[in-house]
Amino acid sequence: MTRDLRVCFLGDSFTAGVGDPEHLGWVGRLAARSARAGRPLTAYPLGVRRQTGVEVAARWATECVPRLSGEWDARLVVSFGVNDTTLEGGAPRVAPERSVAALDTVLAGARAAGWPVLVVGPPPVADADHDVRTAGLDARLAELCAARGVPHVAVHAALAADPVWTAEVAAGDGAHPGAAGYAALADLVWPHWRAWTA
Question: Which of 36, 69, 166, 189 has the most CB atoms around its CB within 10 Å?
């Protein structure tokens, strides 16, 4: 018998599914697809709008320990980066090395607790310069994940080339897609999720 699966999804507004009129986002769609495929779970979407990786790292233990501690298959999915690379006063809100250190903090804490982690990279927005910064940060996050033996799902390039994602982001607030865009993001994460939870 498969152990009860409980997963905290830590992140920002994309993790919260902002912009989705169906209020599922990629997290809800991924959880539903997982259940249909025979791997049901208790999903805890813990996305906070405008939060950077530093802010996510500051709250991760407080939010995840009560939800994950116990005799079950407990895991974390972490996704941030777009807010880190947003310019404020002419500079990114968070320097790339601090974003990388924030992720490393979460990875180290989860490793100590015995909770596997899956990292989902940040998606593109309707701003080419912002996207260059975000893609650069994502490459650094991927390097850290490789060094720590943690799976990383790169979604930035595929979504930047996806006409559904780009059209919905442009039609919305310039950052968040609608239902079909989040479905495309969930589709990119799905094969990695399936392998990670097998």
Answer: 189
